[in-house]
């Protein structure tokens, strides 16, 4: 007997390889455009999903968590940090919260080096 696939709702467009892999593994509902979900859309998504994949632009507060369905067991933030998620309320409701720490480390270091080089007067031609 085949196991039922988890229901996953993604709140924003993600890189194509990520969306493809999610589609392979889960019963996923992807966002067709890159606009933020409204509070009503977030509430509806949290009622139907096993897993919600938000980004930093989605504020998941106690009021939204209070509307979550019994199925919601994980909020898997796509990005570093969880300041936009009421983790204490999620925990009280038995919802795990995860993020991707370190995901921006290399990009941040590259940007810092580019800014340092620019500030020191290095030509962009030597930035590779």
Distance between the termini: 53 Å
Task: Report the C-alpha radius of gyration, rounded.
Answer: 18 Å
CATH H-level superfamily: NAD(P)-binding Rossmann-like Domain
The CATH topology is given as: Rossmann fold
Helix and strand content put the structural class at: alpha/beta
| Helix run count | 5
Unreliable spans are none
Biggest beta sheet attributes:
5 strands, parallel
Helix content: 25-40%
Q: Output the CATH class name.
A: Alpha Beta
Strand order across the largest sheet: 2-1-3-4-5
Give the amount of beta strand, in percent. 5-15%
Number of strands: 5
Number of domains: 1
Q: What number is the mean pLDDT?
A: 87
Mind explaining what this structure looks like?
The chain is of the alpha/beta class and 128 residues long. It has one domain: Rossmann fold (3-Layer(aba) Sandwich). Helix content is 36%, strand content 12%. It is built from five helices and five strands. The longest helix has 15 residues, at 105-119. It is globular.
Provide a compact summary of the structure.
The chain is an alpha/beta fold and 128 residues long. It is built from 5 helices and 5 strands; from the N terminus they run βαβαβαβαβα.
Present the secondary structure layout.
Layout lengths: L6 E4 L5 H10 L1 E3 L9 H10 L2 E3 L8 H5 L7 E3 L10 H6 L3 E3 L6 H15 L9
Parallel strand pairs: 1-2, 1-3, 3-4, 4-5
